[in-house]
Structures
1.
Amino acid sequence: MDLGLTGKRAVVSGGSRGIGRAIARQLALEGVDVAIAARTREALEATARELAEETGRKIVPIVADVSDDSSVEAMVATAADMLGGIDILINNAAVPGGRKVAAIEEMDVRHLLDDIDIKIGGYLRAARAASPYMVEAGWGRIISIGGLGARLSGNYSAAIRTAGVSALTKNLADELGLKGVCAMAIHPGVMPTDAMPADVQQRLAAATSSGRLFDPSTIAWLATMLASPSSTALNGQTIQAGGGIKGIIEY
């Protein structure tokens, strides 16, 4: 299937590893030139070289801190200059998992606000800086990565900050949709890691309707489909992408 993405330009925050890297790679395989952003230059440059060699597309590494207004504005301006514009924004940069606190007496509000500033604030800063390029062109996609913590209790920070991703996405969709810019959110499930014990992986997989866990490539495929010009019927929705949670009916 031709997704109609050849020649598009994308910015992927948190693009040096994990889900961000996988999305950047999949977009590039579909013909997109990509600017990847993160805080660590060495990892960024290594990822950019690898993806450029594999895909043959232009991959631009940009060091940025999404918690800083001027850094995000510079990130977007540099990406637009190096790529010739911006069509797609992938919001992904965040502290992985947030600060895991389940008891209210252990909750430090300053830590919660830091998590929110990085994830929700960072996503908002990037959308604010990138959307004018899309509005001017009359077309664009803003895809934000949340997490299933938004639909589960047990971690104050993860639940609050990822639920905010859906709220931000819907506001962006309603404001920018008539200007040709669609906004979508994805809530990935738990991703297995080498450090995760086999019994923990089995227990987490058993809690899903699919009976398995998924790797970042599955989220990359979904994000790339949503970035396609053919996805115009979707705007403002949040898609759960973790194999399904048993016992919950969504409608």
Note: The beta strands are 9-13, 33-38, 59-63, 88-91, 140-145, 181-188, 238-241.
2.
Amino acid sequence: MSISPTSPDEIIEKAKVFFRKEIAASHLVNTKKLKNLNEFGLNPFLDKYKANFLTGNDDPRSIAKALVYPRVLGTSINTTFGNKLQKFCSEVLEGFASTTSGIDIEYIDKTDGRRKYCQVKAGTNTINADDVETIIGKFKDVRNLARTNNLNVGLNDLVVGVFYGTDAELSGHYKRLNQSYPVIVGSEFWYRITGESDFYQRLTGAIGDLATEFDGSQVIEDVIDSLAEQIKNNINK
């Protein structure tokens, strides 16, 4: 099966559309959901401490800020990105789509000219011990299928591509996996797909430029106001 050519510029334009439609839109929806105090697991041992640490006092509004900021700027957006990863592959990297079970994309590696069968992951700390075994099992299945079909697929042709980060940031689980199959990270991963040494910087820069289109400050303030009122009523019970 031939791999459809997808130009680096096309990947960037599709990534920008995807970010607007999928990531930013979901982030806004998930932020608005936080108006309900039940969305948080309150910790009476730590909530006031975190509020004081953040603002210097532990009034209801400070507690609300300590609850909201980590969720909105950390957990929420990171979870959204991870959950949308497969859709990113199918829409933005559609030219590299794989029909092989257990494989996200296939591409011709720009460093050695060989076809790579790739599982894609978001970041450098996004797999656990069970994931390592699952990935190894899927790669073994691909090798067995390749032998059956007389295809030349070596160990180095089965790779894990990590969207962002550096080798130094890889978790122990990735390092363990890397002992059997290559784990290719960040700029190196994108270079091998596109052949452009600066593509990673171009891609992250293009997404960063979109930030000026999104101002969620008022939404966050509304969420904090709502939570502060609920916290105040909760404290007074």
Note: The CA atoms of residues 45 and 95 lie 51 Å apart.
3.
Amino acid sequence: MSRPITLTFDNGPTTTVTPHVLDVLARYGIRATFFVLGQNLMSRETMALAQLAAEQGHWIGNHTYTHDVPLGETTDPDAPLKEIGRTQDLIGRIAHPDRLFRPFGGGGVLGTHLLSPEAFELLKTNRYTCVFWNSIPRDWEDPDGWVETALAQARRLEWALTVLHDYETGAMRNLEAYLDKALAEGFTFRQEFPPDCVPMVRGRPVLPMEAFIATSRTTLSPQET
């Protein structure tokens, strides 16, 4: 039995990379989820790309506005509204009905830095679905080597939820090679998320959340997802 991979793309949309990603996914018949940054929806061109992705059947999720400081590490009590609420307003009608949200992980790490108590309450009150990950091939720092890393991670998992990035690192020039190799190995691609990566569904925690919510906050410097 083949094992599934779910593809997600963070930190876009960008006019230089997202069109290529959409073209490749269309040619392979793969649907993914794009977790967009609010600040990247501020131009007519990038908003049009997000709309195009939705029209092509991809899901659009929220990945904060600035991608600057993990919410569990910010000292600003209004950060959840500024980062999550403002972005959701920009996504508007193209948002997935489950109001998908992925927190900024500061290098792809899972931990209490992901959410502040205020962010957790906002997610519950506004019925967001929180989507984490289990495969981080770090394409942003290894534009050519991430393909083998992603495949190695998927081999160790029953169902990989892989995080890639549709912005300017050069990594997505290898997207076709990755898909070819994954398909040749017998992996399949599906759009749904593995249940163990979705601890909250429409505002209701379905898995323990304590490990992802800060009890105190300090400020971190910006890092990648």
Note: The beta strands are 4-10, 33-36, 59-62, 100-101, 129-130, 160-165, 188-189, 200-201, 204-205.
